[in-house]
Backbone:
């Protein structure tokens, strides 16, 4: 009888949720023909909407939508283009994609026996579709985002996050037509394509109660 009375009280502290929704903002960086070394040489802005499916405390699938800006100025480089040419550009990009997240620790709030932690670093990787606009022209390409982050559970259903991603694009055109092939070098998967970096700070809210359980679950 006593166990039956105590079990509902304990279960209220162990509620798990299936979904997480939120958004955030941050800064972007660019690596390409107009900047070959310093990611933060010409920082710009970034905003994100996210939706996660949470199969368990160690894993998550994230659907994301990024919108941001990119800037570059080849005049800041030590490299010299043919004919002493110098170029600047300003790009707006949009990316829709899917990523898998693996938490280093079981993430959540609960009793000690659940072995949950309010803070956890994680690694993440996935794929995306990138659309951009620069100098009056537009383009579309596949992208491969990957990186690291950290989550902190502010309250039972409220999460704060910080994430650093590198987005490997499969194009050399996000910095404009003038910079798509300045050295006349044929692009390949690993050479002469553009990269985007994002540092994003997020807030998200969990919903969709999974279950209430009194027993310990691995």
Residues:
């Amino acid at each position: 009888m006593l166990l039956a009375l105590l079990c509902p009280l304990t279960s209220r502290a162990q509620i798990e949720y299936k979904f997480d929704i939120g958004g955030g903002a941050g800064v972007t960086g660019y690596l390409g023909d107009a900047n070959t070394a310093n990611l933060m040489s010409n920082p710009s802005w970034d905003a994100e909407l996210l939706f996660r499916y949470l199969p368990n405390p160690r894993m998550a699938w994230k659907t994301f939508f990024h919108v941001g800006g990119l800037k570059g100025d080849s005049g800041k480089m030590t490299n010299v283009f043919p004919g002493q040419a110098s170029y600047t550009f300003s790009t707006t990009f949009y990316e829709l994609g899917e990523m898998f997240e693996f938490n280093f620790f079981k993430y959540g709030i609960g009793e000690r026996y659940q072995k949950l932690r309010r803070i956890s670093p994680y690694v993440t990787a996935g794929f995306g579709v990138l659309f951009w606009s620069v100098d009056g022209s537009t383009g579309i390409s596949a992208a491969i985002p990957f990186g690291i982050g950290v989550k902190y559970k502010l309250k039972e259903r409220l999460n704060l996050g910080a994430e650093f991603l590198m987005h490997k694009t499969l194009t050399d055109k996000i910095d404009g037509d003038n910079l798509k092939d300045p050295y006349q070098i044929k692009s390949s998967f690993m050479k002469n394509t553009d990269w985007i970096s994002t540092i994003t700070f997020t807030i998200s809210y969990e919903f969709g109660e999974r279950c209430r359980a009194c027993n310990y679950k691995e």
Summary: The radius of gyration is 22 Å. The longest strand covers residues 137-153. Helices lie at 2-12. Strands lie at 16-31, 44-56, 59-73, 88-103, 119-134, 137-153, 158-169, 195-211.
